[in-house]
Sequence to fold (503 residues):
Amino acid sequence: MGDIAEDQQRVIDFLSDPASHGGEPVETIRTHGAYIFLAGGRAIKLKRAVKFPYMDFSTVAKRRVVCEAELRLNRRTAPTLYRSVEPLTEDADGGLMLGGEGRALDWVVVMDRFDQATLFDRLAESGALTVPLMESLADEVARFHASADVAVQVDLPAEMRDVVRGNTANLRNWSPSDFSGAEVDRLDETCVAMVETHRDLLRQRARDGFVRRCHGDLHLRNVCLVDDTPTLFDCLEFSERLATIDMAYDLAFLLMDLEHRGLRWAANRVLNRYLARTSDYGCLPLLPLYMSVRAAVRAHVSAAADQFDPAHEYFQLALGMVEPAAPRLVAVGGLSGSGKSTLAAELAPALGRAPGAVIFRSDVLRKQLAGADLFETLPPDTYTQELSDAVYARLDEGCRSALAAGFAAVADAVFGRDAERQAIANVAADANVPFLGLWLDIAAKEQDRRLAARTADVSDATPSVGKRQRATVDPVRNWHRIDAGHDRRETLAAAQASVLEGG
Fold:
């Protein structure tokens, strides 16, 4: 748990006393780096006087600095939660006071208290995470990353290599019965090789502004609901270096945490929504490395906290994340309103390596090409054949790049023309991966009903668009046809059967 540098018992006793909080009962939470005292409407966070190789809170002065950094940095994402930094002072009579004028014995961060049941790890444990919550969380992460300060002159390959080697050294501190020496060596060799393989890409991402002052500790326990909105808090405040990272490495912690909890469906939703918001498909070759490194960090940190069962789980996850998985390409076509995007999102988690298939949706790519928000309605004159051809070209190229990165891909578009269907099949053939084309059939009356009822959808299709599609679609050949006019679960079951049949 690190070396204890100072005796803080007097301060801890003061903050544990209800009398220090107007008589309110006190709940205490202890972590490896802090004590959190919950009383009334506030939470008071005291840094523990500990010293780790990577984190030094050993003096009052150092704890004040990190408290002030915590306030400043977390106000980027949770401004209403973080109130102030206050001293714990001693008056002339030897009594302690929060925010007094006497000698500062220590420093604390004062926060608004929130309902612990809204922490996303608690929501995960209770099965309360939903698709809208996951997509809203991805939106918040994307917004935060877009506004985070860009770092310059960061040697990203060297930084990642150092993290890998640091993980290896920490894992080797434990006996072979805790972490197999051969497996530690294999993980080290694989991750170092991946850093070397992607050295040029890592350097390019640093040059292109993808390295920023991120959250750094982005897992479910550091997300809560504030006014029903996913809110990131408790970022990594004690090391600029450890938190100045590739934004995809920041995201990878969240994806890994969801995967560790057996929530691949949620990880897949977060990844695909984040990519839809950011267009950062270039990060895909690095995600397996980034998620593996995150899991390895959790493995040795858990071991240091004497949590060996989770430590072993994280270590095996780290190994599994860098194991290749056979990619494949599934195309979901059909007229607007047939349920393509719903089906694509439901199929994606089960395809390929963690966290599932990357979805390339024509409606999303169209908005990206137009520089529009996902839910901004584009004017009719943007729906030209020229733009449509550009969208399908971008879709084909996206699928090609995802397959090259070792991921499965799902192409979600109307595919109304035979040439468009042949082009996406050629992507799979060129990559030498299995291909499955699914066509969703829907009756005209049901299509019109669904399109008329749409609200807040990425697609701009209307009943008049649907009517035009019905008149111009080429005959469908060689794709598995599914009746999509009934219950969504029936459509999914039929599609899953086709996927299994296709290997």
In short: The mean pLDDT is 96. Residues 385-404 form the longest helix (20 residues).
